[in-house]
Amino acid sequence: METEPLKEAAFGRRIVLKSTLGAVAGASLAAASAQAAAASNHGDTRKTIGKIDVHSHYLPPDYRQALINNGHSQPDGFPVLPQWSAEAHLEMMNRIGIATSMLSITSPGVLFGEDPVAWARRVNEYGAELVQRHPGRFGLLATLPLPDVDAALDELAHALDDLHADGIAMETNFDGRYLGDPLFEPVLAELDRRHATLFIHPTSPACFEHTSLGYPRPVLEFLLDTTRTIADLVLGGTLDKHPNIKIIVPHCGAALPSVADRLAGFSALFPLGGQNPGDIDVIGALRRLHYEVGAGYPFPRQLSGLLSLVEPSQLVFGTDYPFGGLPGIERNVNALEGTNLLKKDDVRNTFRTNALSLFPNLSSR
């Protein structure tokens, strides 16, 4: 694990070296792709390094300690706050056959009791240095200090323009305000203008004390909060207003496949979210989204429900490492490779090709 604090000057020098490192990374990924192609001819992708993991997390050591200092040693009721290091992450990737992991900060994000603006800048620059230090192996989904919209817009510009982040990660709600809230309209408008990729990750709802039944929030509340924020974005017309944002929904679509027809039916009958009855094509909006299918427990039942809603081209792979442990990751990779719900080409595309449309810069690193 890294123990030295990041130095601004050192970081600046690494940014200057970006083009050189990019050439090295391009060669690395080209070799990885060749290995993946060779192995896929034998029907086995587990021993190659071709996969793209869109759902993985990093915990800078000072950030992890700050979580503990502020009472988040069991974030969202999760029993442990895992240790993390780039070396351990890479070891997992090599074992699973992952070429690139897209790194993001998970719940509670930067709203844990200290200055969220300062911490967003700090974790984003740490993540950008990891990308520079390990060419081709990591990408960055930057954190924003929401609900401070002005600060979030500043950080968004810094992350995408200066740090060359691959996209943005946002939680399902910020202080109980969901992503369809008008407060966040300027941020979504900017993401739309940039045709940016947005990874949405669940967090605890504001009322979790009354709804979680004493269970860790990842058990039920994470899936329900994902469903809640995506439903809000759809029913209020936000997704139709910002069609250029490429949204990734985690955990195999949460409960969206089960409630999709209900949302569509109510939307056709009643004026919901400020929209007239029938104005929103709910099913069409949900089908445009991208869905991560490797994390959690998507097999054997959840994936079949999602495939009743979307085409296989909308599926991407994720691990939820380090909160997802290696045995569970291996179990899900084996299940995805062995499923009869997808054709072999669809499985290969889920592991890699589908993600390249969301992160086109990966093909040139």
Summarize the structure.
This protein has 365 residues and is of the alpha/beta class.
Question: What do these coordinates show?
Answer:
- A hairpin with a 2-residue loop joins strand 5 and strand 6.
- Residues 1-43 have low confidence and may be disordered.
- This protein has helices at 8-16, 18-40, 61-69, 86-96, 116-133, 149-162, 185-193, 208-211, 221-235, 238-241, 256-269, 282-288, 302-307, 326-338, 344-356, and strands spanning 51-57, 98-104, 138-143, 167-171, 173-174, 177-178, 197-201, 246-249, 290-292, 315-316.
- It is of the alpha/beta class.
- It has 15 helices and ten strands.
- It has an eight-stranded parallel sheet with strand order 1-2-3-4-7-8-9-10.
- It has one domain: TIM Barrel (Alpha-Beta Barrel).
What's the rounded overall pLDDT mean?
89
Question: What's the total number of strands?
Answer: 10
Q: Helical amount among residues, as a percent range?
A: 40-55%
Strand order within the widest sheet?
1-2-3-4-7-8-9-10
Task: Give the overall shape, derived from the CA principal axes.
Answer: globular
Q: End-to-end distance, in Å?
A: 25 Å
Low-confidence segments, given as residue ranges, are 1-43
| Number of helical stretches of at least 4 residues | 15
> What's the name of the CATH homologous superfamily?
Metal-dependent hydrolases
- Overall structural domain count: 1
Strand percentage, roughly?
Answer: 5-15%
Q: How would you classify the helix and strand content by structural class?
A: alpha/beta
CATH class: Alpha Beta
* CATH architect. name: Alpha-Beta Barrel
CATH topological fold name: TIM Barrel
Largest sheet: 8 strands, parallel
Question: What order do the SSEs take from the amino end to the carboxyl end, as H and E?
Answer: HHEHHEHEHEEEHEHHHEHHEHEHH
The whole-angstrom Rg is 20 Å
